[in-house]
User: Fold these one by one.
Assistant:
Number 1:
Amino acid sequence: MTAYNFAYLDEATKRMLRRAILKAVAIPGYQVPFSSREMPMPYGWGTGGVQVTAACLVPEDTLKVIDQGADDTTNAVSIRKFFQRVADVAVTERTAQASIIQTRHRIPETPLIAGQILVFQVPIPEPLRFLEPREVETRVMHALEDYGLMQVRLYEDIARHGEIARAYAYPVRVEGRYIMDPSPIPKFDNPKLNNSPALQLFGAGRECRIYALPPFTRVESLDFDDYPFSATKAAGQSCALCGSTVSYLDEVITDDAGGRMFVCSDTDYCAARVAAGSTEDAA
Amino acid sequence: MYVAVKGGERAIEHAHDWLAQARRGDMAVPDLGVAQIREQLALAVDRVMAEGSLHDPDLAALALKQARGDVIEAVFLIRAFRTTLPRFGASVPVDTGDMQIIRRISATFKDAPGGQVLGPTFDYTHRLLDFDLADGVAPPPAPEAAASPDPVPHILSHLGEEGLMQPEPAGDAENAQDVPDLTRAPLEFPASRPLRLQALTRADEGFLLSLAYSTQRGYGRNHAFVGELRIGHVRVAAHMPELGFDIEFADILVTECETVNQFQGSKSEPAQFTRGYGLVFGQSERKAISMALVDRALRARELGEDMGDAPAQDEEFVLSHCDNIQSSGFLEHIKLPHYVDFQAELELIRKLRRDAGAVREAAQ
């Protein structure tokens, strides 16, 4: 397809995106406004992630795209095909072989390494949005490090439910400064954000924001001394396919009599374990 | 038996094939030409151009055909095409006073220089289904009059001469390049009026209509009269610095609405009429009037009016939610898989219920 530039976006747009990304890397956790473009897929379907990926891609890259941890979910297929078509880059399902991984809602189980870029699709980048709907207000709150409202909110959860009732998009604090929305990953994945050797980039297209975690950034999930954060997943279950007890599990309803099974949400991790003949616990 | 979503790629391809077939419909019925859509569904084409922010009737008609008549989907196709086009520069401000009028009415003056021209309007038609149309009966030729060579000045300019109309800041042709561009810079608040108008002219017609209606019913009331509504062709020109003069490169149909609104005056300003402004591609008068009402409502702060909780007066609320490509994309994204988040919620709610049960048992 020669009608479009490499990776779809024109070079001037990529330059604008790269500037925003560099600024985001320089100020970890800070939401950098950028002039998001209309993309050929709908807003809310990963346009921010697609723009960030397009700005980072070079012809030598190997791209992996996952949605819900899986390479073969429909929107992951669609985005991967898009980049095959407009950038003609190599693609892979293997986490270890990818140089850029675009993801929605998960961080791969296989630990990332230096040199890899993980691009998150972000629906609502503002962690304070559901406490304060106005952008004018939340930007001031971030500037003044005025995060009392968030602490009160988490405290109210404990008062009402006995624990912080947040299962995903669990807010984090970056290098002791900005509170950041990690995108709707399950809080099980939050510890993987911390001190990662990979570069983590977050793109919110509709909301026109890019933010970043440079490699080896300190990322703490918000909690209280007496109510420490804990990463949770399906209690006491293991993957029905590969037997892993340490991976994040999806629940699948198997019949109409309440039968259900649990399987790894990370399909690459699971398939590799099955191929290796492992049905035992793995680290 | 584990039957997850393997085979997504093939499913997508087959779904697209089915879509293409469904779009075409019954093969025994002749294929619809793009020119037919452009000529006979002109108001849908106009709406796609306005909300797509791209003046190209042929592309808009093609988009409508491809979108099976779904206007928002057609707008999306146009936007996704438009975003790939390079931006050379800005035109000089269009002079709507120099418009070749096809329709021009005023609700505030019975007559005015240039006269009232009803034009091709649905107004005063009886909304009775015309069964002759189903049979493809050609309409009788419309009577024609010679076009008047007289200028058709804006009606509100007559009020302006008397000082009764709040003047707008003069257009700055020299610095046309400095006009904010919503498609090249992220929307940040507070927004200037030019930026607000830019957002409103590409906003969803239904959203603007409802907001405008809400101001009429008292949520941010500012009682508007339609001072003038005009539809016609305007010339679009760009200044060429190398040549030192303007070059006309297009002739486009636009709808302009100026409302006259009461303003009580304040300590610093005497009582004066104020203006709401709407300008939209094509023949789109419902949209233009709505835009003018919402524009005027959004000026509440600037004019020192009482700000209640009226949505139409809330700049961040209006501008953040008026774009139908943003809103429909985000709305429809909830049909994408959310198994991971839902699983996390499921575990949380099970745990909360377990804990609550244990507390209840302990209490008994």
Note: Chain B has three domains: 2-82, 96-134+144-322, 333-363.
Number 2:
Amino acid sequence: MAALLDNTCHISVNSTYVNVEGRTEKFMERKRSIIQLFDVSKQYGAGYALKNITLSVKVGDLVFITGASGAGKSTLLNLLYLATPVTRGQIIVGGMNLARLSPEKIPYLRRRIGVIFQDFKLISHRSVFDNISLVLEAAGQPPAVIKKKVEEVLERTGMTEYMNALPPSLSGGQQQKVAVARAVVGDPDIILADEPTGSLDACSAEVITRYLMEYKEKGTTILIASHNTALINSTGFDVLYTLEAGQLAQPGENICAAMNPIMGNETRGRVS
Amino acid sequence: MRSYVKRALENMAANVFLTATTLFTIALSVLIAGAFFLFFENAARLAGDWNRGIRVMAYLDERFTPRDLAGVTRDLRSIEGVKDIRFVSKETALEQLQKDLESSGVTLSDLGENPLPHTLEILLSPSLDTLDAVEAFVESAGQRAHVKEVVYGHGWVAAFLPMVNTLKTGALVLGGLFVITALFVSANTVRLAFYAKQEEIEIMRLVGATEAFVNTPFYLEGIFQGFCGGSVGLVILFFLFQGIRGAIPPEASLVPLMDIQFLSFPMMALIVGAGIFLGWLGCFISLKSN
């Protein structure tokens, strides 16, 4: 936490660390956006879960979305893979305008996005292996490829010995690892993670975090919704957005804004 | 396709109770509807026999000689509604009787003189399809030369005809109602079973599965359950039918009304097909409303 509040933060863009003062913009221009939100609002009944959100995420960035419970972090992620439709505004993901995406195209959008759900969303009567392989089966991959890839992610997440187990027989942490494995097995362009280490002990959280960072190194864009400052601290970030009551917080309104130099309503940097 | 079949089988194995409930409901629906069809088919067959024409026996008097045959036949043919006339001599009739009684051990050799009369077997046209018309024919034929007595051989069946016709209509109406009820019950059961899988479907969609990928195994499952349910219902119906037929004394089966037969092959195929349709329909409704 002390590190988070350190005012001598550095920016991380493509693993290049420089002093923040006055130099951030230059690095932002180097990469194209993979996610863009223009004045996006999401309404449930009379209330707004998100209001007038405009932001963009560049290819290969590690982006954190923070905020208190109910601030709209999960809703923001849900909008990106069309789990829920937007009420107003435009969202462009990987060049696809989600408002104009036909229902037949939605599966193809989702195959480019690996989602780590907060509640894991594992099929209880299917084995760990089958839960993970579902992504590749749905994408029409041949059985041999499916087997190889699933075994690989199981090994990387330390879940090989549980490959035949059913999710209800696993601990919360183990289920979360399965959820992570399923999210990455299809080599997605974007990983959306909703509290990805929420159910993990410190050691497992580190394993998973390191694993996710490997995907970032490969150029995968990662959006993590979390209020876990330890996680943010351990990974660093390219961009950090803070949500407050469905709106992006303005500079100086929160701890994250206070800890770093600001560009508009986003914070770029890495805890040094 | 193999992976779809595999997933459908896995789904059923994972939800044994739901699968069994669905299968049982479809089987029961098919059994009830099938029982009506069984009745309907037998009633229709009886009605069909009836419609092929009624046979009337005209017993000729003692003065009749085969030389008179042409005249008598011509006379009878002049009455409207005659389709065919066959002469059965008293000798042929006796032979036939002896043959019929052979199994019961009765012998007619001690009889001496043949007591049976010469007979004309008259097949009436199907156009005489009411009791009144048949009775009018019998009365008219009875007044012709050499005709001693006209026996309306199927008279007792005729008494059943209105009842059979009423039952046939009733069976159609009730059968229709049962089929509709069966349709709703089965489709609803499949739907309930389907709701248990809603979460799974949602997850599949979220990880990028197309509608075809999500739906195909469920349709296969519904069709398979429908096929099994239909077949099981039919097998139960067959055993029930055998039990009922076994309870009828063999002699009674000589009476046309008691000679019941199981469903024809096309009807069995139709019933199993209906089971498959029920399974498919349940899935279709569930997936459409999902």
Note: The longest helix of chain B spans residues 155-195.
